[in-house]
Every structure is written in C-alpha cells, then in structure tokens.
Amino acid sequence: MAESELPPGSECVEGVLDLLGLLAYATLSAFFRLTDDAAAAESLSDKVALAGMAVDEHGHFLRVLRRLAELHADPETAMQPFVQAVDEFNARTTPSDWLEGLVKVYVGEGMAASFCRAVADLLDPRTQEIVNQVLAGAGQADFVVARVGQAVEADPRVAGRLVLWARRLVGEAITQAQRVVTEREPLARLLAGGDAGQLGKITRILATLADEHSHRLAALGLAGHSAAR
Amino acid sequence: MAESELPPGSECVEGVLDLLGLLAYATLSAFFRLTDDAAAAESLSDKVALAGMAVDEHGHFLRVLRRLAELHADPETAMQPFVQAVDEFNARTTPSDWLEGLVKVYVGEGMAASFCRAVADLLDPRTQEIVNQVLAGAGQADFVVARVGQAVEADPRVAGRLVLWARRLVGEAITQAQRVVTEREPLARLLAGGDAGQLGKITRILATLADEHSHRLAALGLAGHSAAR
C-alpha cells in the first residue's frame, strides 16, 4: 500500500512516529479520564453517556495504533517517550470535582485539536487523515457545554472557579509541551519544518494553544466571567 | 419482530427486566473496574490490553441495553434497583493492589457467568442468547491467569493472600445477591420459577456460585494453596 508508507528515508518519519506516539498515549489517557468522570457521575444517564464517550475515545486510540502498525512501528516504543509528560500533566491537574473533570476533558481535547491543526500541513496525507478522524468527535463538547451551563445557572460563582481551572490546565499543558519538544528532537524537527533549532516557530505553535483557549471558554459560556473565586 | 417480544402478560416479564437491569449495571460496573485496572497497570502493554478488555465489556453492556430497548424498557429504570447492591459490593471489596483488582474482575465475571447459567432455562430464547453472548468473552480469563501465575511464581506467598481475597469476594457477592432477591420480588419470582416464596430454590442457585468458586481458583492456579497470609 503506497499511501500507507512514508517516503523512504524521509527526514520526517521519526517526527511523525513521535507525533503518533504522543497522540496515542494522549487518547489512551483521555479514555481513562472520561471513564473516571463517568464513574463519578451522579445520574445514571450521565454515567452511561460519559462511558459511551470514553469508548469513542478508545476508538480514536485504536485508529492511531493502526497507523503506527501501518508504519511498522511498535506502539509501546512510540508511546513510551511521552508517558511521563502526559502522566505529569494529569497528576498536576487532578480535578477536585466532577465539573472540573468535565472541563479538563473539554479543554484537553480542544488543545489537542488546536495543536494538531497547527501541525497538520507538516504530515503525510494518510497521517493527516487519521489525525482529522481522531479530532472529529464533537459529541463530548455538546455534553460538557450543557452540563457546565446548568451548573453555572444553578450557582453563578461556579463560573469564576472554572475559568481559573481552565487557565491552569492550559498553563500546565504548555509547560509539558515545551518540555516534550525540548527532549524529543525528531518531534521538534517535524514541528519546525526540518530545523530543530527553530524554537521560535515551535513556540508560536504552542502559543496558538493559548490563543484558541479564549474561544473555547466562550463556547463553554464562561467568556464573560472573571477568574475570581 | 415476534421473537423480540416476551409473550404478552407473561408473569416473568418483570423478572426478565430485573435480570437485564442487574446485568446492565453489573457490566457497566465491570467496565469501570477494568478501566481502573488498566490505568493502574505498570506496563504499557498491560495497560493497552486491559483497556481493550474494558471496551469489550462495554460492548456487553450495550448488548444488554439493546435487549432492554427491544422490550420497550427504560434502561435507567431497569438498572436503578440494582445500583445500591452493586455499588456496595464494590465499596466493600476495594482491591489493595493491581493483582487483587485482576482477581476481582476474574472472580466477578465467573460468578456472573455461573449465576446466569443457573437461570438461563428460565429465560425466553432471545434473552438467553444475549446473556450467553455477554458471558462468552473468555479473553479476560487468559490474561488474568497468566498475570496471577507470574506473580505467584515470583513470590509464592502471594497465592495465600489471593485465595483469602477471592473468598471474601464470593462472600460479599452472595450477601448482596441475597439482599437483591429479598428486595426485588419480580426477580425472586423469576428465579424461583414463579413462586417468590421458594427461597430454598433461590438459595440453591446462590450456592452454585460458591460451588463453582473452587473450580475458578483451580483455573487461577491457586487451588493447592492455603488461605494463610
């Protein structure tokens, strides 16, 4: 299958494997976070809905694994370099309640989507296709927007707390992303278009994560709220 | 669809809905337990394998939900009466490590299978078929047997602890099952073949759970070990 292989000797092969490895471990972790949220949901209908979203997320994980298999890459070897950064992000952003858990899933997915859109034109067409499929699921967003809206309506003070929480999530994500591109030269080279020294370009990509964050807060109905407790 | 409906006015309809409701919430809970075990696994390959088993378990849950939908039953209404018993079983049997979590999944699935086999001939053919499909997945067992075997080989003292743990799981499960059949008359009537007063028959069904437990311990390679720490 010609389209399933990168050009032999392509400088970017290792970078693409890095990106897929990161995406694989990130989607596997998102699956675990969603099942945590599902288990913590008070109503049976929320529990069932979130369990279904978790299983969809696992489907994304399997799609990324399949692309790694097409490229003859061992999935564990590809994921391993990113385990620490993703786990540390999760350890530093433990939600204190169900609502913070939901916002974490939403903000996390949003940042992953922004990041992948920013780098999509650097990928081979087949990998681009997989990445787009993985990011296509918008069902989570509708659910989170509805539940956050209800919570803010019931107690408007919740909004300020969630704005603070979302800001912390973005900060921690950028910290871990900076660390990953510092440690993983193949990924840094892919992101910089071949020159790992171009830290300016990489930092600009990370900056888009923060830029688009305000749009996500607006979609959550939190844009007009100040970040005060 | 004639086969998807129970005979109208059948005395057992409510009992079948109870059984499906119990099975639905039990499989949903097993999904959460498997994802907990997956998240706690140290190696990436165990993590990936257990996450896949969790998603299979969610497939079982969806199959039960589909049968409830065929019977025009609301899934939440069907599950609600069993939430407390299943949650209490889980709260009273929190694994202290990953290995106990694995044994819990294995013993829990085994008991559910024994229970359903014991009542299968009381069900309509279509519900029987669903129940058999749900219990068919043997992939979990192979995985658990392999991991427990490795752990016992590395430290034979582990075996005694796991035998004790498995015994506690069976005891707690029978306690909760007794409570469920005491509280849910439709289910009790189904199990007793129409007469809820036949507690002897019901208790004999529960006794099969304990009987088959020794076979499960043997399959885990724990049969020859005493239950001493």
Polypeptide structure, described:
The structure is a homodimer of 229-residue chains. Chain A has 229 residues and is mainly alpha-helical. Chain A contains ten helices and no strands. In chain A, helix 7 (157-183) packs antiparallel against helix 9. The longest helix of chain A is centred in the first third of the chain and has 28 residues, at 13-40. Chain A is globular and about 50 Å long. The model of chain A has no long low-confidence stretch (mean pLDDT 85). The interface between A and B is medium-sized, with 22 and 22 residues.
Which chains share the greatest interface? A-B, 22 and 22 residues
CATH architectural label of chain A:
Up-down Bundle
CATH class of chain A: Mainly Alpha
Number of separate helices of chain A = 10
Query: Into which percentage range does the β-strand content of chain A fall?
Result: under 5%
Number of strands of chain A: 0
What is the first-to-last residue Cα distance of chain A? 56 Å
Principal-axis shape of chain A equals globular
CATH superfamily of chain A: Ferritin, core subunit, four-helix bundle
Kindly report the CATH topology of chain A: Ferritin
Oligomer: homodimer
Concise synopsis of the structure shown:
The structure is a homodimer of 229-residue chains. Chain A has helices at residues 13-40, 44-70, 75-92, 98-119, 125-136, 139-154, 157-183, 185-191, 199-211, 213-219. Chain A is an all-alpha fold.
